[in-house]
Specification:
alpha+beta, Lipocalin, 8-stranded antiparallel beta barrel, 48% strand
Length: 170
């Protein structure tokens, strides 16, 4: 076999192995499966349910969300089920400096999506331009400055906060 043919053969095998590896990565990757939303946090403690316990995890405070999941398939698709579809209005009481949330629960409405995902690095997954970080049995994404905090009469945004969502593998 000539050296040119050997080079072409080697390049073909490398390309073939590269395709096989990229296909098998999703089959064997730890993100494949169903993930349940465990925490939805803002770095402010709230007592929305008025039980006297303040919590940064909004799932523990707001009973609107029954079960939000992400399901990653080996074919490179991800879908959600029972997405949080309720209106939350965050505000800070002018006189007490206590943060609160007005909640409008819509238990009949469901928002869901289906999309493709890609594995950027071993522990980094990209879904619709959103980065998720995989660590053991948790999958975390951060929405930077996604929470607008209003003054008490909702006329001005006085600050913004990040929203962090953590899913656990089922």
């Amino acid at each position: 076999m000539s050296s040119v043919n050997k080079i072409v053969s080697v390049c073909f095998l490398i390309g073939l192995l590269g395709l096989t590896t990229s296909c098998s990565d999703k089959n064997e990757h730890g993100v494949v499966g169903t993930w349940l939303l465990a925490t939805r946090t803002v770095d402010i403690p709230f007592d929305v349910n008025k039980d006297g316990v303040f919590n940064t995890n909004l799932i523990a405070e707001i009973d609107c969300n029954e079960r939000e999941t992400l399901t990653f398939e080996t074919n490179g698709t991800v879908s959600s089920g029972n997405e949080f579809s309720n209106v939350l209005r965050y505000f800070k009481d002018d006189s007490t400096n206590v943060y609160s949330i007005n909640v409008d629960c819509n238990k009949e409405g469901i928002i869901s999506f289906a999309s493709e995902y890609s594995i950027i690095e071993e522990n980094t997954i990209k879904v619709s331009n959103r980065i998720y970080v995989l660590k053991s049995d948790t999958l975390t994404t951060v929405y930077k400055n996604a929470i607008d905090i209003y003054n008490e009469d909702f006329t001005d945004i006085i600050e913004t906060r990040d929203l962090t969502q953590v899913y656990t593998k089922q």
